[in-house]
Amino acid sequence: MKMNDRNKSLCYLALPVLLLLAVSFIQPSLASAQTTSSGVDCSNINVASLLKQDNLGAGRILIECGIVRGGQPSAGGTVTEPPSPPNIRVSNGSACSSSSDVCGSESMVAGSTKDKGQTVVVNYNANYESSNYSGTSYSSDGGSTFTEIQPAPFANGHGENVGDPLVVFNTKLGMFFAGDLAGGCGGQGIGLWTSPDGKTWSTGACAHNGGEDDRPSMWADNVGSSATFGRMFISFNDFTVGSGALEVVYSDDGTTWNGPVVVSNTSTFMRDVQITGSPRGAGGKQSTVFLASMDEGGGGNATRQNVMYNSTDGGTTWTTVAMGSRFNPPGDGPCPSNGYFWQVNPIIRHMGWGEPAVGPNGVVHYVFAGAGTNGDTGDIFYTRSTNNGSTWSTPIKLNTDKDAQFKEQWMPSLSATSGGKITASWYDRRKATSSCVNVGDAGCNYERVGRQSTTNGATWEPSEITISTGIITQPSQNDPDVVGCYAGDYDYNTALNGPDNGGKPAAYVTWTDGRFSISGVPVQSVDFAKVPLP
Length: 534
What we know:
The protein is mainly beta and 534 residues long. It has a single domain, classed as Neuraminidase (6 Propeller), CATH 2.120.10.10. The protein has four helices and 33 strands. The chain has a four-stranded antiparallel β-sheet, with no helix packed on it. Strand 6 (166-170) and strand 7 (175-182) form a beta hairpin. The longest helix has 9 residues, at 56-64. It starts with 5 loop residues before the first helix and ends with a strand.
């Protein structure tokens, strides 16, 4: 990493006024001779770049160099195990045995098309063993039960694993591909692992040998009639290029990766949100690839802009379309130790990021979070394109509760089937009757709530569905090796057209849950539900 001028870094952090106030909470400046446990020289780090990154490895460097504070012990409470089914605790391994562990958060789920969704894999962030921020679980019965693989399969093969999970099933190759940011791929690049059954994994390729990659996302073209059938795409931010260039790599066999293709490298930082694709590859045409991104306005509570990048030539070239106008972010204030990130109280950093999905007939969907009105600090919004991403509708609010203080919604996920059945889900505090300031406050508890469409997003079911079977206790973050302002940055869900669910399609939904406790302390775990479609 290049040595930055201290004054330049401080000027960068002082851009928004609220950001300047938040940065006043940062711990004392780093010691010039200090090194981290992984050998990084603290006098030679790019602080401005690291403060924008959301991976756990960047957070640990900032913690060990004294820039931000890690998780602190919190008071325990009386909590109960989540019931199952239909809510299944995915991160259920015995290796997570301390209340200071992150047992699971920030998840991505994939199902095998080879056995109609009977095999399900969830990749997620976890921290309970040395040099590994990764956890992986599988189900062989369509999500009725899960087994956490131990020792963690992605802790070996590509050096240190710093999380940001990926997982897809490639129908053409008949394999799961999963990945995380890994030290053995150029310093902090994208390492992959492969499995035919979700249970046994082999070390795969480095999809990108990067020195400072962040927040990758992945999609596989599983449309049999597409000219790019079997091609996989990974998008990410590369902080060795400009201010964090938005880049894409792609592969037809999972071994040889092409690129990176620079999608955006302007002075405006464009956050990678999620890459996906269209099933319009009929007749040998290439599927359209969509890459959702966000201009975060310099961080803090600055206004945001959703942007969609489209590629119709297999990821070689990209066009840009703005989705709607700028909007105010959800959340309650700056993260105490890093004011670039905005926070949903008490500890959840969230900038409004969402997830795209593609239905039939050239209809593309996107869901995101923004500020509400009348004192409501978070609502869920939906927009769609009916012409393959060329233009976008005016966003509508999906959550039907009235705007009011304490009734916060945030961090949505989205999935679509080829028949146009859409499931959006999010974290929801509509039942809160008091404020949320600290872990343990009753107003901090939440549910996982969703809303569905059977008309490819043209209309939505009149009311929401509650996916979690009970109120979720707000989990703590006591891990000193993970930034304190953290309970996962995203959850990427999926849908399968024909899983073993009475012959009906279903959405596979995962989220960060706090109903599992260790020593009376609610810890971050990953829960799963297979949600029937109406």
